[in-house]
Specification:
It is a single chain. The chain is mainly alpha-helical. The chain has two domains: about 120 residues, Orthogonal Bundle (Arc Repressor Mutant, subunit A); about 35 residues. Helix content is about 75%, strand content about 5%. The protein is built from six helices and two strands; from the N terminus they run H-H-H-H-E-E-H-H. Helix 1 packs across helix 2 and helix 2 packs across helix 5. It is globular. The chain starts with a helix and ends with a helix.
Length: about 160
């Protein structure tokens, strides 16, 4: 059991570090960072735009990081963030500009290449099973963490 934990923890940590390095390297050419990659990815998937709050949830980073990322992308004219039409700013939809779409298309090509290279040596069925198992493990760990948070809050009350 402990060997599986060691192997799982080490592999996940290594994958996470490498993914961050890849995102940073890819985004550097556009004057951006890894956080920007995830924002662009999710904005591209949602053509109608996303609020800062939605981006915070989807990218799983804090509000401050998203706010800084959006401001930086706005300054580089990669996203547009309308502040008008009577809405509060946090409810305004952030959208990709034409320049943002071009950057995201380049990013998507790099992501596609990385995913293909990462799966070298696996059959299609093995990849499918891996991602299915990884998703189940992720959901179970999230549930475990949520249960722990609930227990801790109950103990503190």
């Amino acid at each position: 059991m402990t060997e599986r934990f060691d192997m799982f923890s080490a592999a996940i940590a290594q994958i996470s570090k490498c993914m961050q390095k890849l995102k940073t390297r890819e985004m550097h050419q556009f004057g951006l960072r890894g956080t920007h990659a995830m924002c662009l990815y999710h904005l591209q998937k949602n053509e109608l735009g996303l609020t800062a709050s939605q981006l915070t949830d989807l990218c799983d980073v804090d509000k401050g990081a998203i706010s800084r990322a959006v401001t930086e992308m706005q300054q580089l004219e990669i996203v547009t963030y309308p502040e008008g039409d009577g809405k509060r700013k946090y409810r305004a939809k952030i959208k990709l500009t034409d320049k943002g779409i071009t950057v995201t298309e380049k990013l998507n090509r790099s992501i596609g290449e990385a995913v293909e290279r990462a799966g070298i040596g696996l059959t299609w069925e093995e990849r499918e099973n891996f991602y299915k198992a990884l998703n189940i493990i992720s959901q179970n760990i999230q549930t475990l963490c949520l249960d722990e948070c609930i227990l801790q809050k109950g103990e503190l009350s």
